[in-house]
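Researcher: Structure prediction, please.
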Amino acid sequence: VNLSARLMANAPQGGILIDEATTRLCTRELLCEELPAIMVKGKTNPITIFRPRQKGPPEYIGLEPTGSGRVSFPWYDRPLSISQQISMTEESLAV
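Model: Predicted structure follows.
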């Protein structure tokens, strides 16, 4: 029996638990809430576990309403300024 089976056995009904290695593979669409470590059969040390959950919808997409001139897209980690957008567009057109 592997670690994933142990995590499944410890998960609440209808819930999901993942280990630290799996959190590193998660996309930006998920948030991983760290839970208290648990002991599982076959492992000497406690296993840090996480509860994955989907991020909520972005507050807005496109030009930020703050008047900062920043453009925000949910698929980027941070908002891009207009100059960054122009630079990226120019680079893609130069190809």
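Model: The helical segments are 3-10, 20-23, 82-94.
Researcher: Thanks, that helps.
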